[in-house]
Amino acid sequence: xxxxxxxxxxxYDVCVAAxxxxxxAGDGGLQIVDVGNPRLPKAMGYWAQxxxxxxxxxxxxxxxxxxxxxxxxxxxxxxxxxxxxxxSERPRQARRVVRAGGLVFVADTETGLWVFECPIAKxxxxxSAR
Length: 130
What we know:
Elements: E1 13-17, E2 20-24, E3 30-34, E4 42-47, E5 54-58, E6 61-65, E7 71-75, E8 83-88, E9 94-100, E10 103-108, E11 112-117
Antiparallel strand pairs: 1-2, 2-3, 3-4, 5-6, 6-7, 7-8, 9-10, 10-11
């Protein structure tokens, strides 16, 4: 083990970009950790307004699979204070999320796969397919 960092909640998923680790931490929400020095990772910020189970990052936008809250997008340009910039209550049980090219794919335990177009200012306005 090179390093570790204790965080609230359960770590369900992680994505690393630009010396930051973004963790989907269940009831701990989104946790952002500075991993610039992997021997001394440091908690730097969080957004805990949803139960987070999946996470992906594109540039400074975090895509969060937020269980009953669906898909949540956050601006994490300030890693200490991420802020919500978009949300879709569909799907209803979002578990995993991946952004690939111009699309965001969300796995939902109740209804299967949802696909949204990017950029998504308002995800509910994007096309979705199940």
